[in-house]
């Protein structure tokens, strides 16, 4: 058969063109991991430690593309470094408590180098399908030059995370606005907005910090706040708020810890409702558990709101050439709009068929069916992804060992016969 194909390939130009357009098939003995961000790297490292080699597919040209190409310059980790470590390797001792963007990227690159993780870059997964007849996954990718590859693997790990695609809301009149409109994924620094009036839409950690960055670069920011939110100091009683919360939860009920956090916040930050930042009825930790909504950890923005350097605005009703009409009826001119409206996962869009994708909540959301796993989708940040990465590696190792033992028994029985 091979000789016939080779002969056809040598003498038939039409066959040659057809064969060149056909996808390349690659059989992977270990798991295929989709995504080379922190979650994907963590799974690959945990697998390697157990002697299981994996193949990492990444649609961009670098690891941690969100951090390398879509994060603003002043970004730091919002949590202390000990809560953002990946499995098996800590941060360098000389790194500060809250590493910078560049320091975190350096850490991830060193991590990939240490565990010999070499992703296949510029490969976008377009289709994943489980073949029940063979018990293998078929993962189809498209490369930078539109070349197609089909990977055949026993285990598939989806590690594209919850921040794969920017969320861009539809605002009435968006196409008519004469100023610049950009998502925070393309925002780098407030330097380009010096002296300009900028409206920031979205009041999460990114929106708050972008407003602060704009202030530091002599811009005039306003912040759209449509919903209630919790703002907490980044540190309490000399400790990180996150670390203190985790420690208190070991001894106290969640709602009691929430009361403590809110009491200390009121003492240190004052009544945020007076600034136009109403708090939700549920406490910050309870709300996080139920909805995944993260409280804002203040890094200096609140002081700028109190001083009037940052103005709070209601929701947007409509945009005109350089004018924003708010839902309360007032209008105001702005030079630019920055959308700090967050990100969303894309696993459902990327996989046209995703049999058995995990749907269980934390802490059981890492395992699906048919050798399918997910990491970084439980709204628990890097810490939660690291825990899931360890579980996935342990489960794949167990499955591999069981299948190997079954194969050995089958061979033994065959020989005895």
Automatic annotation (TrEMBL):
It catalyses: indole-3-pyruvate + NADPH + O2 + H(+) = (indol-3-yl)acetate + CO2 + NADP(+) + H2O. Its EC number is 1.-.-.-. Keywords: Auxin biosynthesis, FAD, Flavoprotein, Monooxygenase, NADP, Oxidoreductase. Pathway: Plant hormone metabolism; auxin biosynthesis. One of its GO terms (biological process) is auxin biosynthetic process. InterPro entries: Auxin_biosynth/cation_transpt (IPR050982), FAD/NAD-bd_sf (IPR036188), Flavin_mOase-like (IPR020946). It holds the Pfam family FMO-like. The keyword Heme does not apply. GO terms for molecular function: flavin adenine dinucleotide binding; indole-3-pyruvate monooxygenase activity; N,N-dimethylaniline monooxygenase activity; NADP binding. Its cofactor is FAD. Belongs to the FMO family. This is Flavin-containing monooxygenase. It comes from Salix koriyanagi.
């Amino acid at each position: 058969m091979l000789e016939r194909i080779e002969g056809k390939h040598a003498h038939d130009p039409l066959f040659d063109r057809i064969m060149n357009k056909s996808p390349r098939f690659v059989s992977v003995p270990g798991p295929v991991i989709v995504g080379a961000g922190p979650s994907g790297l963590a799974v690959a490292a945990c697998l390697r430690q157990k002697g299981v080699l994996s193949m990492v597919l990444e649609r961009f040209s670098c690891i941690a593309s969100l951090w390398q190409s879509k994060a603003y310059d002043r970004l730091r980790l919002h949590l202390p470094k000990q809560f953002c470590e990946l499995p098996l390797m800590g941060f360098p001792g000389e790194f500060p408590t809250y590493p910078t963007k560049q320091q975190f990227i350096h850490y991830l690159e060193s991590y990939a180098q240490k565990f010999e993780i070499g992703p296949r870059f510029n490969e976008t997964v377009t289709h994943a399908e489980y073949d029940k007849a063979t018990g293998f996954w078929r993962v189809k990718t498209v490369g930078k030059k539109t070349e197609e590859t089909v990977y055949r693997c026993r285990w598939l790990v989806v590690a594209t995370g919850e921040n794969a695609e920017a969320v861009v809301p539809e605002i009435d009149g968006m196409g008519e606005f004469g100023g610049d409109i950009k998502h925070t994924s393309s925002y780098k620094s407030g330097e380009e907005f010096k002296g300009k009036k900028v409206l920031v839409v979205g009041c999460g950690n990114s929106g708050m910090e972008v407003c602060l960055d704009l202030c530091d670069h002599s811009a005039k920011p306003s912040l759209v706040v449509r919903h209630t939110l919790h703002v907490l100091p980044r540190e309490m009683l000399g400790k990180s708020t996150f670390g203190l919360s985790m420690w208190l939860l070991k001894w106290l009920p969640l709602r009691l810890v929430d009361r403590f956090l809110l009491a200390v916040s009121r003492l240190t930050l004052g009544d945020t409702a007076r600034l136009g930042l109403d708090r939700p009825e549920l406490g910050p930790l309870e709300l996080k558990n139920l909805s995944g909504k993260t409280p804002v950890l203040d890094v200096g923005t609140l002081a700028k709101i109190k001083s009037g350097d940052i103005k709070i605005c209601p929701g947007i009703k409509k945009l005109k050439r350089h004018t924003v009409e708010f839902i309360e009826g007032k209008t105001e001119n702005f030079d630019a709009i920055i959308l700090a409206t967050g990100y969303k996962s894309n696993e459902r869009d990327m996989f046209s068929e995703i049999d058995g994708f995990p749907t269980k909540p934390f802490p059981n959301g890492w395992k699906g069916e048919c050798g399918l796993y997910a990491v970084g989708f439980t709204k628990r940040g890097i810490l939660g992804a690291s825990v899931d990465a360890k579980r996935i590696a342990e489960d794949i190792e167990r499955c591999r060992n069981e299948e190997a033992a079954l194969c050995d028994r089958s061979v033994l029985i065959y020989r005895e016969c």
